Amino acid sequence: MSNYHIKNFEEYFHVYRKSIRNPENFWEEVAEEHFLWRKRWDNVLSWDFKKPEVKWFEGGKLNITENCIDRHLRIRGDKTAILFEPNDPKEAAEHISYKELYKRVNKFANVLKSQGIKKGDRVCIYLPMIPELAISVLACARIGAIHSVVFAGFSSSALATRINDSSCKMVITSDGGFRGNKTINLKSIVDEALLKTPCVETVLVAKRIKSTIEMKEGRDVWLQPLLDKADEECEIEVMDAEDPLFILYTSGSTGMPKGMMHTTGGYMVYTAFTFKNVFQYRENDIFWCTADIGWITGHSYIVYGPLLNGATTVMFEGVPSYPDFGRFWEIVDKHKVSQFYTAPTAIRALGKESVDFVEKYDLSSLKTLGSVGEPINEEAWHWYNDNIGKKKCPIVDTWWQTETGGIMISPIPFVTPTKPTYATLPMPGIQPTLLDENGKEITGNQVDGRLCIKFPWPSMARTIWGNHDRYRETYFSAFENMYFTGDGALRDEVGYYRITGRVDDVIIVSGHNLGTAPIEDAVNEHPAVAESAIVGFPHDVKGNALYGFVILKETGEYRDHTNLRKEINQIITEHIGPIAKLDKIQFTVGLPKTRSGKIMRRILRKIACDEIGNLGDTSTLLNPEVVQEIIDNKID
Ligand code: 6R9
C-alpha cells in the first residue's frame, strides 16, 4: 500500500499511527516513491529543538523545479499547468501547459543568470498575480537563488525593510497591476523603497498595465526583451535537500517582520503530500486557491504543491467583488473548478451579498471546498456549505502557518467526517499537543490549551533569516522541547482540534497576520502621538478589525480629531499598507500598565470587545484609574 494517497478513514488511522511510530520511515517512503532525486539522502532526519536544528533528507540532492515541471513533460506535456484568469473577465484566460511552463521558466532563469544572479543570492519578487510571479519564483528555484516574495499590497517602506533584512540583490516587479477597477503603480512604490536599499543592483520590470514609468539607467531593465533573447534550456542547479529555497516574511509580535526560511527537500515532500491528500486531487481536476502568492498559502498551494502533483492550478489576478460579487462563482463555472480554497474573510464578505450572485452559475464541478487563514465561524461555514458546496462538498478547514510550510491539521475530504469550525485531525507525521500555562501537557479530551507540536515535520521553517536567536526565542523557548505555534486550541470529546486564535500579540485581519508592535510604531510616528496600543475586536467581515488607543502629546495644534484620525491611518498606510488601518481610534489620557511598564493589552482588548463585565484583576496595575476613563469614552 502506498502511503501517499489516503482514501478512507480506517486507512487514515492506520497511516497516522504508522507515521507516529516511525516518522523517519514514513517520510522516507513518501520521498522515495514520488520524487526525482539526483542523489539519495544519507540521513532522513536529525533534530534538536534546543538548538534548535532540524535537517531532513541530509545529503540528498535535487532541484524542486525538476520535480514541478521536467518530470511531468513526458506524460503531461500538453496539460495545463497554470491557468491564468485575468482581472478583467473580458480578457482571455491563459492556459500555460507544462511544456510551455518549462520553456518560460528556463528563459526566465537564463535572464536571472545573465543579470548576475547565482545560487544563494536573494531575489525579492514584488509582482501582482500575473504568470510572471509564479514563473519568477520557479526560475529562482531552478538556479538555486532564494526567492523572497513580498505581497504587492505592502507599502514602500515595508518593502524596503524586507529587501534590506535579507539583502536582496535584485527586485523583480512590474510597471503596475490591476485590482478590480483600480490600477496600482508598483514601479513607483519600488522606486521609493529603493532609495533606502543599497543592496539592490538590478530591477527587472515586467509590463502589465502599460503605464509610463521611470527606468533608472544602469539599474532598471525591461524583462521582455531579455526573455525574447534567452535560451529555452536551462540546466538545473543541483541543490542539497537542506539548501534554502525561499524566505517569506511574516509579522511578529515585536518590531521587525520575521523572514521565515524554508529549505528544499522537506518542503517539497510535505507540500506535495498534503496537497494530494487534503484536496484529494485526481488527474484532470482543476484546482483553485484564491490566495496571493505573496502569502505562504500561495507558495505552497498555488505554486509548489499543485505543480509537484502535475495538477492544473488556477491563478486569479483580480478580486472577488469585480466586476460584481459573482466573480468567484463565474470563474468556478467557466473553468469547471474541482477544488476551491479560500479564506473565511472572503466567505463572510460574499455571504453578505445576495445569493443571486451564486445562483447564476453552475457550481456542479466542485468536489471539495477549503478554508484557511483564520478560524471560520459557524455562520460562514454553513453559508459556504449550503450555498457553494450545496451540502455535497466536504469543507476542509486547514490549520497551518507560514512557519509550518504546509497544512498541519485538517480533515481529509471524503475521509474525515467534518464538524463546523473544527480543523479536526493532524496530518500524518504531525504530533500536536495542548499545554497549560506551566508547560504541562494536557492529556485526554474536552480540554483546551496552547497548541504545540512535539516532533519535527519535513516542511518546518529552519530559521528566521539572520536571526536564529529570535527563532529559538519565538518558537522553542516557551515550552521545553516543543514547537510553540502561538495559537490556542481545544480538543473535543473525539479528539478533534478547534483553533481558537492567537494567544500572542498578532491580530488576524481579513486573513492577514498583523503584529501590533509595527502598527503602534507607525502610529507613534505622528508628531502629536505620545503613545499607542492596538488591539483587535471582532468584525463581521474581516474577522477582526483594529482598535487603537492613543495618548496625545500636550499640543494644541491637533484639536481636530477627524483629521488626526485620517493622518494616523495615512501613516499606517505608508508604513505597512492599507490592510493595517485602524477602524476605531480612541484618544485617551492614559493606558493601563503593569508595574514593569508593560501595556496590559488584555484589558484594552476586553474593552474593545465590549466585555467590560469581566476585566479581571486590575488592582495590580500601576494606574487602575485610567480603566474607567477608557470605558467611559469607548467608541462604538
Ligand atoms: C496558512 C496561514 C498563521 C495563523 C495561525 C492561526 C491562523 C490559519 C487557520 C487559522 C484557525 C485555521 N490560522 N489557518 N486559525 N483556523 N484553519 O494562514 O499562515 O499567514 O502565517 O497565519 O493563521 O492563528 O497561527 P499565516
TrEMBL record:
User: Domain AMP-binding enzyme C-terminal: where?
Assistant: 519-598
Q: Which GO terms describe its molecular function?
A: acetate-CoA ligase activity
EC numbers on record? 6.2.1.1
Q: Which residues form the AMP-dependent synthetase/ligase domain?
A: 71-462
The residues covered by the Acetyl-coenzyme A synthetase N-terminal domain are 12-68
Pfam families for the chain:
ACAS_N (PF16177), AMP-binding (PF00501), AMP-binding_C (PF13193)
* Keyword presence, Ligase: yes
Family indicated by similarity: Belongs to the ATP-dependent AMP-binding enzyme family.
Q: What is this protein called?
A: Acetate--CoA ligase
